From TrEMBL:
It is found in: Secreted. Residues 133-581 form the Peptidase S8/S53 domain. The active site is at 141 (charge relay system), 214 (charge relay system), 544 (charge relay system). Its main location: secreted. Residues 659-770 form the Subtilisin-like protease fibronectin type-III domain. Residues 1-28 form the signal peptide. Residues 202-223 are annotated as: Disordered. Transmembrane segments: none annotated. It comes from the Eukaryota. One of its GO terms (molecular function) is serine-type endopeptidase activity. It comes from Cinchona calisaya. This is Subtilisin-like protease SBT1.7.
Amino acid sequence: MGDFKVLSFMFLILVVMLLGVCHVPVAAEQKKKTYIVHMVKNQMPASFDDHNIWYDSSLKSVSESAAMLYTYDNAIHGFATRLTAQEAESLRNQPGILFVLPEMKYELHTTRTPSFLRLEENANLFPVTDSESDVIVGVLDTGVWPESKSFDDTGMGPVPASWKGACETGTNFTLKNCNRKLIGARYFSAGYEAAFGPIDVSKESKSPRDDDGHGTHTSTTAAGADVPGASLFGYASGLARGMANRARVAVYKVCWIGGCFSSDILAAIDKAIDDNVNILSLSLGGGISDYYRDNVAIGAFSATTKGILVSCSAGNAGPNAFSLSNVAPWITTVGAGTLDRDFPAFASLGNGKNFSGVSLFKGDPLPEKLLPFVYAGNASNATNGNLCMTGTLIPEMVKGKIVLCDRGLNARVQKGAVVKAAGGAGMVLANTAANGEELVADAHLLPATAVGQESGDAIRDYILSDPNPTVTILFEGTKLGIEPSPVVAAFSSRGPNLITPGILKPDLIAPGVNIIAGWTGAVGPTGLAEDPRRVEFNIISGTSMSCPHVSGLAALLKGAHQDWSPAAIRSALMTTAYTVYKNGQTILDIATGKASTPYDHGAGHVDPVSALNPGLVYDLTTEDYLNFLCALNYTSSEIYGVARGNYSCDSSKTYSINDFNYPSFSVTLETQVFGGSNGTSTSGNSVVKHTRTLTNVAGSSGGTYKVSISSPSPSVKISVEPDTLTFTKDNEKQSYTVTFSASSMPSNTNEFGRIEWSDGKHVVGSPIAISWV
Ligand SMILES: *[C@@H]1O[C@H](CO)[C@@H](O)[C@H](O)[C@H]1NC(C)=O
Ligand SMILES: *[C@@H]1O[C@H](CO)[C@@H](O)[C@H](O)[C@H]1NC(C)=O
Ligand SMILES: *[C@@H]1O[C@H](CO)[C@@H](O)[C@H](O)[C@H]1NC(C)=O
Ligand SMILES: *[C@@H]1O[C@H](CO)[C@@H](O)[C@H](O)[C@H]1NC(C)=O
Ligand SMILES: *[C@@H]1O[C@H](CO)[C@@H](O)[C@H](O)[C@H]1NC(C)=O
Ligand SMILES: *[C@@H]1O[C@H](CO)[C@@H](O)[C@H](O)[C@H]1NC(C)=O
Ligand SMILES: *[C@@H]1O[C@H](CO)[C@@H](O)[C@H](O)[C@H]1NC(C)=O
């Protein structure tokens, strides 16, 4: 009971956070909302010979005036339309209607990565064949700035014959904007416009053009061409390249100033499947719900069963537990870690103390002498005066001074703009407990540095205790070789998985802090209206940035192993990911300063060079995913809602998530309480078995693999049977069973372990998370 309350509370937080950023839609049609109507296509009455006419007639039977926003053929069978709640209810009772689900709004999860990932020194390991250039990465985002040098198609061969997509034109976007690199560009606005009214083309482009920057950043991270001499104001200078620098890019603009709407996202996935993309990258997320109500999960299911790998951001709601989005087991869920690169900028105080921070500020430096220093909380009459919210600083109290602002609520760069507007000379941005020691560098509009919580507290103490506090900020450019790295970013969303506790998420982490990639020419690097600067590259952070790293790496693997399924590619990325530094210490979590766990980093940090040759993979078929839905006890309607095929679970069979062939292990055990009216748990043993099947992808030489197990603690015993697996043929399959015997532990206890299979050449690792509920 208690645990359930915690869970629903966490869920509420998520929902509230999402609603918190919602804009109030303009009521274009009174009380009408967008609904996505899922139809059972094979129940079409014989009197119809076209399903579109049938959909239309079903809709007309409840609303004469309702317009079809979209009809869907691949991602789901059905359509999107505008209905009143009452019309939606009567539509639900029509024959052939599976679900009538209200639209959901999603939000974006906002050139040294290749060498950090050891891609550059190992470039020759990736076969230089035409196969990578036949891989098409589809990116659902804010569109694209086609003039970015990352879309230069010099030297690229003809567009792959498999491509069936299009280059859609519109505001500031013509056929000339597509080429052999950026092979496709579409936009989807019907759902957005139905909710917000017609797009105002003086504010945003009704075309694939990116007015925001996010989509240009993600698509160039995944598959941008090499651009030598890239930098942001000289920061992070060097070669900028996408992960799959020879692959093709197809962009699907689904996010607008007012958000990303599920009817548009579903339409984009529907088209991307038809267009024949190989990889889909979605750096966005929304409220989490059961898979049959989650349009991204539903669309991703169809894509996966057609051989398309779908990679999604895990969300930026960390470091809270249970904060993940995009957790369906057919999606690759990507969290974020840091790089070994930093942008130091020191806050040097009048008392001689010196605190390190980070910044991407470029502009006139501060005067040599120390400047007066004021805490924003003492220069404002607002309750949240310390946060430097718009209009809260009293100009007379900040003029010519450096202002200490606390992080939280409004955008970091916005705080700088607020200080600047009030006449401040500079800003020190202090983390609070919510962000701990995590530092995200920004291209501030005024001299500014961001410091961690400990430094922030010390600096605040200094201001409040010194009668005449002073400070200056010293910028030191780009520093490489920062250790330890990676560390898990505090913002990266964390497990456990709220929807299916038996599936460990996130799957892995990838670089997502201070990432440089292409940018739009429509706004400056801060994205603020008051920022007149224009840049070709920008440095930003988020799981939005880590997701396209994995999308691009998946494209590299797809190019190298064209016959691998999406599950095989994900398995290769996961089982070769690393969880420890070279010195053997576990990857740290910056939120706690302690070792991270599989709930933070999943299988670990991606290592593409090892992923190229994983030895063995955990593969999954469409039937495995359907059996998974059976194991969830989904009704046949719910299964149809996710998977469409007319699949019924066999009532004589027992389905178990424990045997779902996932490359990681998540074991939930019940805390057993015996006797004792005091409610204390006493001993009691649980035994749980998980079966897995490994497929040899190392060719006919195969190998003999031995298992090694690291058990978390004496309270859990892990054994594997058999403990040796021998493969002699390509694609040969061998199964094993893991037995977890655990004594009862207090609820909310978590333990972690690891299983590794090795033949001396390959290491096939899987994380284990055990939690007592
Ligand atoms: C179209 O592009 C031109 C030149 O790049 C720019 O001046 C104009 O503002 C753009 N229009 C829109 C709606 O983005
Ligand atoms: C502040 O400290 C850093 C590293 O500890 C050092 O590089 C820098 O020169 C110091 N600056 C001042 C003004 O003391
Ligand atoms: C400044 O703010 C702090 C706490 O926010 C408060 O304790 C202190 O009294 C204030 N100082 C002045 C001079 O107002
Ligand atoms: C802030 O509060 C002080 C004291 O109540 C008042 O004198 C002053 O006018 C206020 N300033 C602003 C800008 O509201
Ligand atoms: C599905 O139902 C079976 C039998 O009632 C039960 O043992 C199992 O725990 C259920 N699975 C889930 C995921 O709820
Ligand atoms: C599945 O097929 C049966 C028989 O063909 C049909 O009656 C049923 O409606 C179908 N269910 C779904 C969800 O398609
Ligand atoms: C609670 O009850 C159990 C069994 O009745 C007993 O062994 C244990 O000592 C009790 N614990 C406390 C804290 O009273």
